[in-house]
Amino acid sequence: MTDRRRVLVTGGAGYVGSHVVLALAARGDHVVVLDDLRQGHRAAVPPQAEFVQASAGDREALDRVLGAHDGWHAVLHFAALSLVGESMREPYRYLGENAGDGFALIDACVRHGVPRFVLSSTAALFGLPKTIPITEDAPVDPGSPYGESKWMIERALLWADRLHGLRSACLRYFNAAGADPGGRIGEDHAPETHLIPLVIDAALGRRPTLDVFGDDYPTPDGTCVRDYVHVSDLAEAHLLALDQLGTRSVVYNLGNGRGYSVREVIAAVEAVTGRSVPYRVVARRAGDPAVLVASSERIRAETGWTPRFSDLQDMVRTAWLWREANPHGFGDR
Ligand code: UFG
């Protein structure tokens, strides 16, 4: 078929990227995934998608892939180093690789006439926010080189729109959670640093105990509060945001608008699994803000986006089902 929309997805073998690839393929788009598999998993890419093993900043590979066809509909950019703590220890690697890859990709889009770009951005732009919930207009003050590197790409996209008419959607995720409800793919990071998979592993007895990073925050139970958003709802938001890009660029914060504490996450995992989670309270983790909750009113109003998984237990259930069925994740690490 020639009328299918052709989209390039960098990092399409990663956690959020692969869920977006499933959603794009399900609506009939022709998807090409570009991923260097340093963090992504080949098995996370569905058979309907084409796969190219290369990094998002590989200019030759980008020219080869984008130059092979006319009429690209969009590029969606997920590939990135994404550990906040690691970025504090290796700031110039994060700034250099993330921003450098982003700039090379934007440049390739401009040269090959790609009209639309979607960026996987982050709530880490907001550092220690002064007002909750956080709107798109809240002051940007990244608390880490990771957040700064995403902000640098957002700024480059502003210039790509002004100078070249490349329309973009910058999507700032809060805490991505859960797994494909169909059980096809899920979350598999090495090392795993995210709360929900770690709590599930503690419940499964695959970790002796969960470390809770601080219980002396100014929150109702003393532990940090985060806005968890289901990865399939994030995927749907990408499709809707893409459809906004006919005439203008957009920026959206993506969350449920409701926060859950670390203790509430533990309780949700215990309720879903029927197992108790061994945990101990340890020192705070450097750089963690007490509360991060999104206002997603803008994307709801402009696109009609309505998360299907707003209940924490429903999100945890999908993560649990995938983890239980795939105790070693994709089994390639
Ligand atoms: N936490 C623990 N113990 C752990 C792991 C996490 O108590 O073993 C706590 C953290 O202190 C935090 C909460 O659980 O309060 C969530 O932590 P995650 O590491 O799962 O997620 P973060 O909120 O730190 O970070 C996520 C993404 C980042 C992104 C950021 C934006 O992982 O990529 O949200 O807010 F930048």
Going by CATH, the homologous superfamily of the largest domain would be NAD(P)-binding Rossmann-like Domain
> Biggest sheet: strands side by side, in what order?
3-2-1-4-5-6-11
CA radius of gyration is 19 Å
* Percent of sequence in beta strands: 15-25%
Question: What profile does the largest beta sheet have?
Answer: 7 strands, parallel
Number of strands: 14
- Please, what is the average pLDDT? 96
CATH class of the largest domain: Alpha Beta
CATH architecture of the largest domain: 3-Layer(aba) Sandwich
**Through-space gap between termini:** 37 Å
Q: What is the element string, with H for helices and E for strands?
A: EHEEHEHHEHEEHEEEHEEHEEHH
The oligomeric status of these chains comes to single chain
SS-based class:
alpha/beta
Number of domains: 2
Bound ligands, each once? uridine-5'-diphosphate-4-deoxy-4-fluoro-alpha-D-galactose
Q: Which consecutive residue ranges, at least 5 long each, have pLDDT under 50?
A: none
